[in-house]
Every structure is written in structure tokens, then in C-alpha cells.
Amino acid sequence: MATDQPQKLFKAQTLKGFRDYMPELMAPRQAMIRLIEATFERHGFQPLQTPALEYLETLAGKYGEEGDKLLYRFQDHGERHVALRYDLTVPLARVVAEHRNEIQLPFRRYQVAPVWRADKPQRGRVREFFQCDADIVGVNSAIADAETLITGLSVLQTLGIDGAVLHLNHRDVLFGLIAAAGVTEKAQQIACIRAIDKLDKIPAAAVQTEIETGTGVDAETAGRVVGQFLHGAMTIASVADQLSAAGVDTAGLDRLREVLALVSAAGLGDRIRFDPTIARGLDYYTGIIYETRLTDPRVKGIGAVMSGGRYDGLIGLFTKEAIPAVGISLGLDRLLAAMQELELVSKDSHAVQVYVTVFSEAQAVTAIQLARLLRQAGLRAELDLAGGKLGKQLERASKRGARLAVMVGPDEATAGTAVLKDLRDGAQQTVTQEDLARTAGALLAV
Amino acid sequence: MATDQPQKLFKAQTLKGFRDYMPELMAPRQAMIRLIEATFERHGFQPLQTPALEYLETLAGKYGEEGDKLLYRFQDHGERHVALRYDLTVPLARVVAEHRNEIQLPFRRYQVAPVWRADKPQRGRVREFFQCDADIVGVNSAIADAETLITGLSVLQTLGIDGAVLHLNHRDVLFGLIAAAGVTEKAQQIACIRAIDKLDKIPAAAVQTEIETGTGVDAETAGRVVGQFLHGAMTIASVADQLSAAGVDTAGLDRLREVLALVSAAGLGDRIRFDPTIARGLDYYTGIIYETRLTDPRVKGIGAVMSGGRYDGLIGLFTKEAIPAVGISLGLDRLLAAMQELELVSKDSHAVQVYVTVFSEAQAVTAIQLARLLRQAGLRAELDLAGGKLGKQLERASKRGARLAVMVGPDEATAGTAVLKDLRDGAQQTVTQEDLARTAGALLAV
């Protein structure tokens, strides 16, 4: 490598919409991932990992027209059309079909992994973000629906997020309310749902206009559709009345009642609420759908931190067998942003605990041995590598967030001892090298 | 979604060279990742995460001609030339240059992440694999070299892999031995190194031929080059003699002596060995280089499980400041394969501990409440979702690997109790629902 010749520097730059997670942010982010994974496992979910790249055919056409445009797609070295995964749900459907013989249903899996969408960064979106999904494949029942919701709400509890409410709806209730307003063609209903999905972001009049242009129905009908979702306090009972009056089936509401009862039985009734305006953009949902919003005013703008629903038709696109499924998806980076804002992020979980100074090159061997003993005892220990005066080394120890520092000069080396200094209060004690790890551990445990 | 209409099924297929990790394999793999990360952290390394996609310019030209060909590259929606990351080292160099003002040197970071190479699958290579890297940026010293090696060897110890030997060399020793054989042009020396790198895979005569065709030197010189690396027991002293006799500088050997002494001081002397035939293919190394091989005959074919070296010129491609660096890279999937072969993989770490049966739909509420209590107590509990007779449910519990099962019939529900069954010996006891989690925890702790 011609580093000795002057040459043009390469630009050090991340791609637009992509970012590095430096240790200050990555450490708490990783602690969050571990908590989420452990909570999924406590609820009986097992880890699955799928490739970042899939055949384009596997992903295309599953996310609606807009989603299709956002797929990162290209031809690989074998001229295969491939794409980076857009979510974790369609790859799961592909896995269930491909590995059907190895999988015992019901199949509970979780996956924490990045997904890629070529979204416009000016919309505040990033193009690479982590999803944390847990899904139950093979059962269509209220108890399976409830299990996924309880799992998701438990994750939020584990992370210390108390002010979160899951807004629950059912696709049949949505379609029913739209049908009751007089829109009965499936394609038109789907266009209505796409517009209704924006009710919390744009004014009702704009939603109505979108329904008119998207479906071709007249202004009165579009106004009736929007009106269906603008009642003050819509309860299951009041929506049941609306649907019954229009002669529309209410089975979706019955399922919602059951799910709400089970989630309440688990003691989480105050964190879930029926909300008929929840529409979800994705095409593949067939049963319950939901979004979870934070109620604390400091983090209201962050948007949905957990969403998902039932998608009984998706796996059927890959295999003849009809296999129902339901799942949750947590947005890791939105959750991290919320936790930072709410000051729930711990900075200590990964920090260095003991900083081992190196008195001089002659003491490097002793320093490296003591670092080894501390690490074998399970402590996070950093060895000074920049050298210089002891004062400088202790400054670096403080900057690295270390609680304790170890010092061994020629006298201590001869005596087989070390000086252990508490960097919080400056107290120091001389201990035998044998006792160092035990004493350090005891100080850290206080 | 038109699931009610007959339609062509999508093919459920992973791309060639890519694979799914099903839970049976992913669970131990994830347990390994957690152990590796914890060991890195005990050694003072902090997590960093970089994007999967980089500007093509960032990656191109850093991995030699062959590496360049294996880059997954394409144009994104903004017609930028981009590529999937090929390793974790070049992105680290880009990060250090881009975030220079935020980073305090020495900077120790680790990253566990997938990389992508469009390699030929018939060579037994996969196209997506995980690397686990730990690097120290900002210091060129024997102690920094030793710290990275000690960290890597400690990871292998933590994983329970005892029969591993790190083969250590230095680029200057390699160049020196080649120069001593009479090849003095840099480009010719690099061609020699590429050929020498294959000495453990192809016969010496074939390596000699490759040197002749790759450099244009005569057969005698090429034979002398190969001969330099074929001595029986090459020690630092014997190589020092070879180099001194040819009037070649021996500073590289001095560095190796120091590093070996420090690693030995940490008690790891039996896991490291000087090996002048280690060449490493990548162009960017400037100091120590090494590969770690497993010695157990059952896993000898797996290849190097940990490798790396010093690359003091790489970051300088992105910034004018000269910033040295040294690192290790562990191959997660090779390690997992080795651990499976050596029967070191634990299957229990993620398995369900308690299976909660559902006697009937009327008992679903109680079952969901008991599952909640068990999970809140930190136990991994699965709720039966497939229903049917109790015997069927207990069969599923066993298949899922659960140790305990919980049963609540109408009598128990009325009495506020539950039956807890040990699936290993069939013993069962009736406990109050309040005591369930504590009793289950106690049984699992035995």
C-alpha cells in the first residue's frame, strides 16, 4: 500500500439517510436490544435470522405501490434480481414456506435486524433502521392475538416506558365502517383505508379530498366515510350499533372484545384501547391491527413505537397451505429516541469499571497481568496504552468513565502489591495483587 | 389482498450463498455473540455500528483486485454508486476520519455485524457472514498489539475452545525474507506474499510457479523465495540469522519478541507461536499479522477462526493525520461450526422453561395470568396456543424442550391453585397460584 506517496484522500462520508452509531449511543442501544430479546424469550419466542438480501420476486408487490418504489434493488453478479429486505415479516413468510417440514406449528420466532427503505430523508426518515419483531405463526385465535400484544407491552414495561397506549382495531371493523358509509367496492375501500390512515397527520378535509380523488366517489359519500371515524368517543358498543344499523357483520368487534379481555386479564388493560381510526398502510393485514403511541408530552412527536397485526393471507402467497399469523414490530430507534428524551437511558451498563495504568515500559508486564486477573474476574478493565505521566493516565481513566484505577510502581512491583484508587472520592488503598480483583469487585458492588 | 382468488405462488427460496438460521442454530449462535461481546467489553472495547451500505468509493481499491470484484455494488435511487460492506475494518477507518473530533484516541471499538462478498459458493464460501472485530486505534506499540491478541485469545477461552494456536508474523519479516532471497522490487514482493499465503493449501512447487508467473523472476530466485519459508523449525533466532546474513533490518522480529513476551505474561504463551509463513492476503497490513488455527483433529479443516493484524496506513487514506491501528477479526460461523463439532454448544440457554397449558377456552384467562406471573419472575414461559386434549398439550411441551408444565382445570381454578408437573420425572405437585413462579424457579434452579 503506497502510504508513503502523497495521494488524493478518499472522502470519509456516510451515505445520506444512513448513520454511524458511536459508542455513546450504541452502548445503551445494545443494552436495549438485549432487554428486548430477553423479554421475547421469556414469552416463548425463539431467535431466527434471515439474509439481508432476498430475491426481488420474494419482496416485490407485498408492500403496496409506494413500498415497492422504496425497495433497494439491483442485479447481482449472477444477474439475479435481488433486493435488500424491507421488513422482517415477508422474509418470515418465505421462511415458513421454505422450511415448512422443519417447523412445528405454532411457531413463535423473533428477529432483531436492520431493514432498508430508500425513503426521502427530508421526511425525517432514515434509510436503514432496526426492527424488533415477534410473531406467532399457525394459529388464528384471540389468545394468540393477545399473546403478541402482551409480549409487546411487556417489552415496553421492561424498558421502563410507562406512558404507552396500544390503539387496537380490526380490518373488518374498518371495512365495515366504510361499507356502512356506502363504499362497497374492495379497491375503493382500500383507497379509503389509505386515506383514513392519515387522519392523525392531515386535516379531515384533506382526507376527504384524497378519498374523492383516490376512489372517484362523490363528495357526499367521501364525507360520510370520514364522518364514520370522527365521532367523539367511539366504543365497541357504539361502533357495533353503527355497523348493525347498516346491516354489516360484527365478527371483528367480537374478536376485539375477546382480545381486550385477555390483555386486561394480564393486568395490562390500562395500556390498550379500541381505536377504529387505526388503519395501517400495509396491504397484508387481515385481522387485528394496531399502533402504540407514547402519551408523555415530551415524546408525543416520535410516532408509533410498536405496531403490527394479523396477516392470515401472506404466507399463502408462498405455499398452498393456509397458515395464519400475527405479530408485533418494535421500532428500535424511535424507542431509543424516546428513552433518551425521558432520561431512561443508562450510560453505565457498558462503561469501563477499572482502568489499569502503566507506570513505565518496565511495568507493562505486571500491568497486563493485573488487567488479565480483573477481566477473568468478570470486570470490565482497560489497560492504558497512551503512556505518559500518571496524572495524564488518571485523567484518561476519568474521561473513560472508569470508577477505579490501578497503579503499580517499582515499589509495589517488588512487594507484589498494587494501589487501588476510587476515582469518585480519591480514596486509595494498597492491596496484594492476588486480592486486587476481589477488592475491586467489592468496591464496584457498593 | 386477493387471498380468496387462486393465483401463482411465489417461490420460497433463499439466494444462493445465503442462508436462514433457524432457531435450533440461531439460539446457540446468539448465545455465542453475547459471550463474545461481553468479553470484548471486559477488555475495554465499546460497541460501534456502521451502515451496511457505504459509498463505493469508500470500499473500492482497499481489498486488492480480487476483493474489488467481490463487492456487491449498485446505483441507488439517487444514482449514487454504493456497495455493501465487505469487512468491518475499512468502515472503521472511514468512521475514525469522519468523526475525528468526537473520538478520543486511543479508541477501542468492537463491532459484530454481517459482511457481504459475492464469492463463489462452490468454494464452500457463503456470501453473507458475520464478523466480530475488536480494534485499537491511535497507538503503535507492542502493548497495543498484545492487548488485541489477548482479547481474541480470551474470547476463544470464554467459548470453551482450548485447542487453538495463534500463528504470529510481521509484514517486515515476510518482506525481509523475500528480499533476502533476492526479490527487492515492492510490486514483486507483494506478488510473492500473495503466493506464499497459499503455502498451507497448495504444494510448494505450485507456489513457486505462481511466483515465477506473478513476478517474472527466474525459477532459481522463485525457488529461493519458497525455500526461505520451508525450514523445519523456524524460530525468531534462526530467522534473525537469515535476515542478518542478508543485511536485512530485523526491527519486525524485535516487535514480535516483545509481543510474544507480553502475551506470555498474561498466561497465554502456550496459545501463540511465531510462524513466518503467515502472509494474509489483504493489502492493508503494515505490522503484525496472524491467523488462529484449531488444533483438534476433529475441526482442523475449518480454517482460521481469528485473524488480523496492524494496519497503520489505512486510516491515512481518509485523513491527513497519520493514525495507526491494530485489530482482530473472529469468524462467527466458523467458530459455531467448530463448537458444534466439539459439542461445546449448549441448547438450553434459550429454551422454554415452563409450558402453560390451557384446559379449555374458559380457563384461557387464568392461563394467561399465570404465564404473566412466570414471565415477570424472569422465567421463559410459553402458553399453549394449539389447544386440544391435555395429553397433546404436554406432548408439545416436551417437544419444545420445556422442563415444567402448568395445568389448571376447573377445580384448581376454583381453589386458586395450579398443578406443576416436572416433565423429566413426571412428578407433580399442587401449589397456590401465588406460589407458582417461586416453586417453578426453585425446581429449575436444581
Primary descriptors:
446 residues; 16 helices; 8-stranded mixed beta sheet; alpha+beta; homodimer; Rossmann fold; BirA Bifunctional Protein, domain 2
Description:
With 446 residues, chain A is an alpha+beta fold. The first copy, chain A, folds into two domains: 23-341, 2-Layer Sandwich (BirA Bifunctional Protein, domain 2); 354-445, Rossmann fold, CATH 3.40.50.800. Chain A is 39% helix and 18% strand. The first copy, chain A, has 16 helices and 16 strands. Chain A has helices at 23-42, 56-59, 64-70, 89-98, 142-158, 171-180, 186-196, 204-215, 219-228, 236-245, 251-265, 332-341, 364-376, 390-399, 410-415, 436-445; strands at residues 46-47, 53-55, 73-75, 81-84, 107-116, 128-137, 164-170, 272-274, 288-294, 306-310, 325-331, 354-356, 381-383, 404-407, 417-422, 428-432. In chain A, a hairpin with a 5-residue loop joins strand 3 (73-75) and strand 4. The mean pLDDT of chain A is 92. The interface between A and B is large, with 111 and 111 residues.
